[in-house]
Amino acid sequence: MLATETPKIPAVPKRLPPQDYELLRQTGIEYLQKLSGKIWTDYNVHDPGVTMLELLCYALTDLGYRTSFNIADLLTDSGKAAPSKTGSFFSAKKILTSHPVTIADYRKLLIDQVPGLRNVWFLTNDNEYAKPPVYYDLKKGELTVTQPLTAFEKLKLKGLYTIKLEMEDFTVVRAYHRGFLETLEKYRLESNANTGDVTVDEFEDCCMNYVCALMRDWRNLCEDVDRISMI
Fold first, then answer.
1. Three-state DSSP state, 127
2. How far apart are CA 172 and CA 48, in angstroms?
3. I need a labelling partner for 40 at 20 to 30 A (CA). Which of 21, 33, 72, 205 fits?
């Protein structure tokens, strides 16, 4: 049967307000006129402020389009008929990750990344003088590693940490975290020519090197590890 009506594309399509670019743009300009009409009067397309408004409107229309879908469609993988019981959502570890900022963050990072780590302490070295000593020459106004003959100030460097690790016994780690021992093989001392499984004599040095490498990957600007020890 032939269709009785010819499909037509409307010249002015009906859109929901979040997807209507012109409506959003006009509403934005009206707000600008109310808030800054005394100091900003040029709302033509060449104005940089209007350009920024248009970009914002475009982003809102994109979000409006995406959020108009049924939630089941958003959670369904491509080619699937329905959302899967697993994999539809990001895990907290993936979606909430960020670089550690505080000492508590660093402790959580190491406890999470070092199997067999029972506890860890971070001590700041803010009250210790730098080694080798660093001096500020008050007369010349510059830093030097040579003690000035005139007035000077001996500096204390902030942002350096001493880390103390409390690990499970080697036999426990070997029994329950075999994969971690394989990882530690890469963190032997440079002077150590051994290959294969990490031994009990190498265990502590390898753990400290591994923690040092983690901290170098995750440390904040102007922070570093001064010393690592085992207790």
1. coil
2. 64
3. 21
> What tens digit of pLDDT does each residue of 214-227 get?
999 999 988 999 99
Inform me whether the pLDDT recorded for 88 exceeds 80: no
**pLDDT tens string 128-167:** 888 889 999 998 899 999 999 889 999 888 889 999 999 9
How far, in Å, CA of 49 to CA of 40, rounded? 10
- Distance CA(98)–CA(96), nearest Å, equals 7
Task: Please tell me the pTM assigned to this model.
Answer: 0.57
Distance (Å, whole) CA 100 – CA 83 = 34
d(CA 89, CA 131): 49
Of the candidates 201, 202, 221, 205, the one whose C-alpha atom is nearest the C-alpha of residue 213 is 205
Q: What tokens appear for 1 in the block? A: 């049967």
Rounded CA gap, 74 and 82, in Å? 10
DSSP E strand stretches across the chain: 117-124, 135-137, 142-144, 152-154, 160-167, 224-230
Of 9-13, 136-140, 181-185, give the lowest mean pLDDT range. Answer: 9-13
Q: Determine the residue type at 32.
A: L
Extract the tokens encoding 191: 């002077």
